[in-house]
What we know:
By secondary structure, this protein is an all-alpha fold. The protein has one domain (10-122). The chain has six helices and no strands. The chain has helices at 2-6, 9-39, 48-76, 81-108, 114-118, 123-145. Helix 2 runs antiparallel to helix 3 (48-76), helix 2 (9-39) packs across helix 6 and helix 3 (48-76) runs antiparallel to helix 4 (81-108). The chain is globular.
Amino acid sequence: MxxxxxxxxxxxxESKKIILITLVGNVFMWLVWGLLxxxxxxxVVFDITVLLGGLVGGAVxxxxxxxxxxxxxxxxxxxxxxxxxxxxxANYGKRNLLRIVxxxxxxxxxxxxxxxxxxxxxxxxxxxxxxxxxAAFAKxxxxxxx
Length: 146
């Protein structure tokens, strides 16, 4: 587990959040997909391609986040700001390439349902934003009680 040794505690904690957000998002997607499949069986099919698309799409989303965190962790330790910027930019390009390759694979390879494979890519960002909104409301409610 060399990767875990490289990760700082904050990145490990945030990665756990991203894994949980992505897992919850996938389960929710599968539930909605299944319900739509029962309501409209001639139009919406829930099969193994939906499960595989969600699993691999979720793994790509989580890996993208972890890779970003490792890149930022590495850049923070670089003394030269220009070199740090170049490291972050290079990593951004590679992470975008990863997502583009996954989109192409999800669309072209028949064992994946492409929609189910692409939806999980938005789970980490959306989940973190929602957590921020809920945290802001929780703080607001605490201040009103005091």
